[in-house]
Amino acid sequence: MSAASVERPHENRPLIAEANRLMERNPGNRVEIIGGQIVVSPPPDGPHGEALMDLTIPFIEAGLHGTESKVIPGIGIWLPTGAEDYAIPDLSLVDADYRDHLAENNCYDPACFRLVLEVTSSNWKTDLRDKVRAYAGAKVPVYVIVDRKHQRLHVLTDPTGDAYDSHRPYSPGETVTLPAVIGGEVTLDVTRILRAGRQEAG
User: What are the residue ranges in the chain where pLDDT is below 50?
Assistant: First the structure.
C-alpha cells in the first residue's frame, strides 16, 4: 500500500491550462510539463507501439497486473519538480490502490509508482535527460528507457536527489532482470524489444 497523497495548493494553473488546450488542438500528441516547460511529443509510430506491447507482456506474465499492482499505459504522474509539473510515461507499474492517490489534472501521486518506462521517439533527449531528473526527483524506484536511437535499453535504480545512483545500459544480445523492488520477477530480452521498436526509414 502506498503513502497518502500530498495536499496540493489550488491556485491558478496557467501552464496546465495551456497544456490542456494544446492536447485538445493536437489529438494524439502527448503534452507534459517537465521542469516548468511544456513538452509536446508527436503521436507514436507503429514500432513504438510494438515495442511497448512486447514490454507489457512480461509484466503481465509475472502477475504484476493483479491485486497488489497494476500495469497501466499512459497514466499521469504528478511531479514534485515544479508547481505544475507532470509526466505521462509510456508504461507504469503502480500500486493497486493508485485510485486513492489522485493528485491533480488526472495525475497520481508518485508514491504509488513502482516503475516508469519510456520508449523513445524523435524527442529522445527528453527521456534520456529531463525525465531522468524528473523521475528521480519523484523517487520512482525504477526507470526503464528503450533508447531506439542508440539501440540500448537503460535501467535506472536507486533515486537520490535528481539522479539515479545506478544506471546500467544493456545492448542487443543481453537480457535484464528488473530489480525485485517492483514486486515480481520480470526479465526482458533486449534484442527482441529493440528489434520490435526499430524505426522505419522515411
Answer: 1-10, 202
pLDDT for 200 equals: 66
Amino acid at 137: G
Q: Give strand pairing partners of 84.
A: none
Q: Give the closest residue to 106 by CA, choosing from 3, 13, 43.
A: 13
Distance CA 129, CA 131 (A): 6
Q: Which residue has the cell 524523435?
A: 122
Enumerate residues 6+ apart whose C-beta is below 8 A from 144.
55, 115, 116, 117, 118, 153, 154, 155, 156, 178, 188
Q: Which residue has the cell 529493440?
A: 194
Nearest to 30 by CA among 18, 20, 42, 38: 42
Among candidate residues 109, 198, 80, 98, the one with its CA nearest the CA of residue 146 = 198
pLDDT at position 201 is: 57
Do 73 and 56 contact (CB within 8 A), yes or no?
A: yes
Q: H or E stretch including 72?
A: strand 69-73
- Sign (positive or negative) of CA dihedral 46, 47, 50, 51: negative
Give me 104's grid cell.
491533480
